[in-house]
């Protein structure tokens, strides 16, 4: 059995929407998203929940 069920042997990750549509994420696209400046900051409208979103 694979360790990651949503990954293919080539490294492509996929997901399914509630409507059943399959979304396929290429490995290179995910790496670009990880290095994006937007991914380095928390969302501006994130609520402050002690123990969850803040210490």
Automatic annotation (TrEMBL):
Pfam families: eIF_4EBP. GO terms for molecular function: eukaryotic initiation factor 4E binding. One of its GO terms (biological process) is negative regulation of translational initiation. Keywords: Protein synthesis inhibitor, Translation regulation. InterPro entries: EIF4EBP. The keyword Signal does not apply. The keyword Ribonucleoprotein does not apply. It comes from the Eukaryota. Belongs to the eIF4E-binding protein family. This is Eukaryotic translation initiation factor 4E binding protein 1. It comes from Helobdella robusta (Californian leech). The gene is 20196927.
